[in-house]
Design brief:
The complex is a heterodimer of chains A (190) and B (245).
Chain A (H helix, E strand, L loop, with lengths): L3 H5 L3 H10 L4 H19 L3 H17 L10 H20 L10 H11 L7 H14 L2 H12 L4 H8 L3 H19 L6
Helix pairs in contact in A: 3-4, 3-5, 4-5, 5-9, 6-7, 8-10, 9-10
Chain B lengths: L2 H12 L7 H34 L17 H22 L9 H21 L2 H9 L7 H10 L6 E11 L2 E6 L4 E5 L4 E3 L9 E9 L2 E9 L19 E3 L1
Parallel strand pairs in B: 3-6, 4-6
Antiparallel strand pairs in B: 1-2, 1-5, 2-3, 4-7, 5-6
Helix pairs in contact in B: 2-3, 2-4, 2-5, 3-4
The chains are: A mainly alpha (190), B alpha+beta (245).
């Protein structure tokens, strides 16, 4: 059992080396990323009831592939990539479209209000509009917006997570913003 | 208590799960690079062969035929091989290390430029001709002969090919073309590529002018190859070795 103090002494990349020597250290990495990844897979559209299963798979998968971790990358980008792939593969396996739980509408509402400052919406309309926007927003744009605005990743990290060139990421961010604003303003909701 | 952490560590211990060994990933990466290199070689060789085909086809004759023949079946197979080689190489490259960071457009351009540059070098060094003779017996490669016939069985456009059937004198001979027609060839002042010496049975291609059963030739080439001297054989006179008779 590794104590929390011991975990805090080490950065992610150093912990990877320690885990390869002693699997107990893996608890440090799992604890460090559980909440962030839980939020992330949830915002990608994973149902709350499925997130624990997805996260377990993510961490087991990452553990088995630790020797494949490229230390020139950030560990966080690498583990986010695994989480992303695991979530997408789960959607494919059970053949469902990502959903957004009503409990997680707040950050999206903030994004709507900051993207369309001229709109005056009362809370009820805003909630309905947000739900509609998220139902209609293309999943590939949703994942881009999640990484950019909620996970606050920079383009280089997004490029490593999604395995796309930075130029493509920039284009996707622009398109995602445009579609999001169009939907938020109600232009495509009818 | 973090249940995820406990569950994960518990599973690792009870099921004795261990990280996959590093060599497996190294082997996978080496395989990708090897595949990438092989695909580049395929694309390069296709470009080299294509240049060889075209150099011996209508290309050099100022489009006497139009450019339809540039895209006969064999060249199309080579173009497809080049495109497929480059596409798979691109896919392979993007899966190696951090290959995904580079834009598809720039990687494609570099790959295509590499294949064309190395393909041209391949052709320039005479390797295309060597490769052509090595694989000439491969299935489907026989199409090459049909392509050559398409190009060189065109007396109205000044191109014929066949076998010398009879020597009349130093300046003229009879040639039986591949359609079985006999031509009286006037080769006075013609350039004999590759230092060819006229003899019965010699298979050649001629560039000149047809008039009835007579053919006035300006240039004689061996049937296989364009008669240009490869760089390795004649560094000084590449492309022009031969002699006037």
């Amino acid at each position: 059992m590794v104590l929390e103090d011991e975990c805090e002494k080490h950065g992610d990349e150093a912990l990877v080396d320690l885990v390869l020597a002693n699997s107990d250290y893996y608890a440090c990495l799992v604890n460090r990323y559980t909440e962030a990844l839980r939020r992330y897979v949830f915002r990608l559209g994973c149902r709350e009831s499925d997130t624990d299963d997805v996260l377990q798979e993510v961490f087991l998968n990452a553990y088995m592939h630790l020797n494949d971790f490229d230390k020139k990358l950030k560990f966080s980008s690498w583990i986010y990539r695994i989480a992303h792939n695991q979530t997408i593969s789960m959607f494919r396996k059970i053949n469902v479209r990502p959903t957004v739980e009503l409990t997680d509408l707040e950050p999206w509402q903030e994004l709507i209000l900051s993207s369309c400052p001229s709109m005056k919406l009362d809370q009820d309309i805003l909630s309905k509009r947000t739900k509609l926007v998220l139902d209609k927003l293309d999943p590939k744009y949703r994942e881009i917006l999640v990484l950019k605005y909620f996970e606050e990743k920079d383009y280089s990290e997004m490029s490593d997570i999604l395995k796309k060139p930075m130029g493509t990421i920039a284009t996707l961010v622009n398109r995602a913003k445009k579609q999001f604003i169009k939907l938020a303003e109600g232009q495509e909701l009818n | 208590m973090n249940t995820i952490s406990d569950k994960v560590l518990n599973k690792i211990k009870t099921e004795k799960i261990a990280p996959k060994p590093r060599w497996q990933f190294q082997l996978r990466d080496s395989g990708r690079w090897l595949g990438f290199s092989l695909l580049i070689v395929i694309a390069t060789a296709s470009v080299g062969l294509l240049m060889y085909f075209w150099s011996d086809g209508p290309w050099l004759h100022g489009g006497r035929f139009g450019f339809g023949l540039l895209f006969g079946r064999m060249p199309l197979i080579l173009i497809s091989l080049f495109i497929l080689g480059a596409l798979f190489a691109l896919y392979d490259f993007r899966n190696t290390g951090r290959g995904y960071r580079l834009s598809i457009k720039s990687v494609s351009l570099v790959l295509i430029a590499m294949a064309i540059l190395f393909g041209w070098l391949f052709y320039y060094l005479g390797l295309s001709q060597d490769l052509d003779s090595v694989i000439s017996k491969a299935p489907y490669y026989q199409d090459r002969q049909m392509y050559m016939m398409q190009v060189w069985q065109n007396p109205s456009n000044g191109l014929i090919a066949g076998q010398i059937s009879k020597i009349v004198n130093e300046q003229s001979f009879y040639l039986k073309d591949f359609a079985g027609k006999e031509w009286l060839v006037d080769a006075s002042g013609a350039l004999w590529r590759h230092n060819l010496i006229p003899e019965i049975g010699l298979e050649i291609k001629l560039i000149g002018t047809a008039n009835g059963n007579n053919f006035k030739t300006d240039e004689v080439r061996p049937l296989i190859g364009n008669g240009n001297c490869a760089m390795m054989q004649n560094p000084v006179g590449a492309g022009s070795c031969g002699m006037m008779r």
